[in-house]
Amino acid sequence: MSRAICLLSGGLDSTTCLAVARQEGFETYALSFDYGQRHHQELAAAERVAAHLGAHAFRVAHIDLRAFGGSALTAEIDVPKHRSAAEMGSGIPITYVPARNTIFLSFALAYAEVVGADAIFIGVNAVDYSGYPDCRPEFIHAFEHMANLATKTGVEGHTKLTIRTPLITLTKAEIIHLGLAAGADFSLTHSCYDPTPAGRPCGQCDSCLLRAKGFAEAGLADPALA
After folding, report:
1. CA-CA distances (angstroms) from residue 131 to 32, 52, 87, 92?
2. Whole-angstrom distance, CA of residue 29 vs CA of residue 59
3. Are 74 and 91 spatial neighbours (Cβ–Cβ below 8 Å)?
4. Domain-wise residue ranges, the chain
5. From CA 54, how far away is CA 205, in angstroms rounded?
6. Alpha carbon distance 24, 4 (integer Å)
7. Would you give the end-to-end CA distance of the chain in angstroms?
8. What are phi and psi of 214, to 5 degrees?
9. What's the 3-state SS for 139-196?
10. Given strand 119-121, what is the order of strands in its sheet?
11. Quick one: CATH architecture of 3-225?
């Protein structure tokens, strides 16, 4: 059985990726990050999702991107609220964490070498992606090329690693339908950038608004809000 590393944040997109990897017959290794983010609800959600979808392993890598800051997710910077679709589609928002996907994929690459995985699944999206530069197809292609130059398994020809992005051209509604068809339980997920002290989603940040838009366009109620 082929093995895949699945980057798992506990949100809609990464949950769908894990479900798709399982559906495609991969033995899945879920990898999450405690990177100095302002809340840990997403890590609890990731663990729930990994268990539900039968991941062979679930690991949390600990790194501290607060050392650099520069993002509303890792520094004392207000998370933007109530932004329109036009505002979310213009420019790179302050919730962008500098080089985060590059760092996460590098950890996933190391994990892939150790367990003999030939695929890494990541839930990047170039449609409803809030302007993040590390969610674009050209970034993924460049990283995949680098990965096969920079690893022992790639150089020795044992494994050709692929970076799988099954969501990259889908709308949020399409992602929701894909995830449900693959067995995802979205009631277990968490997407909010700035949850309440009780862990409830704020309903106003970009991530909450995109999630709400996706469920509305899919014609479904969000089970996490039940």
Report:
1. 22, 31, 10, 5
2. 8
3. no
4. 3-225
5. 31
6. 10
7. 37
8. -65, -45
9. HHHHHHHHHHHHCHHHHCCCCCCEEECCCCCCCHHHHHHHHHHCCCCHHHCCCCCCCC
10. 57-62, 27-34, 3-7, 119-121, 162-164
11. 3-Layer(aba) Sandwich (3.40)
- What DSSP assignment string belongs to 35-97? -S-S--HHHHHHHHHHHHTT-SEEEEEE--GGGT--STTTSS-PPPBS--HHHHTSS--TTPP
Q: 0.85 cut: is pTM over it?
A: yes
Between helices 12-23 and 172-181, what is the axis angle to 10°?
40
Vertex 140 angle, CA 136 and 142, to 5°: 115
pLDDT tens per residue across span 68-116: 999 989 998 999 898 987 787 777 888 888 899 999 999 999 999 999 9
Name the phi and psi angles at 79, rounded to 5. Answer: -75, 130
What residues contact residue 4 under an 8 Å CB cut-off, 6+ apart?
A: 21, 26, 27, 28, 29, 117, 118, 119, 120, 121, 164
- What's the one-letter identity of residue 218? A
Rounded Cα distance, 65 and 49, in Å: 24
Task: Tell which residue, 16, 47, 51, has the closest CA to residue 33.
Answer: 47
Tens digits of per-residue pLDDT, 124-145?
Answer: 988 765 567 888 899 999 999 9
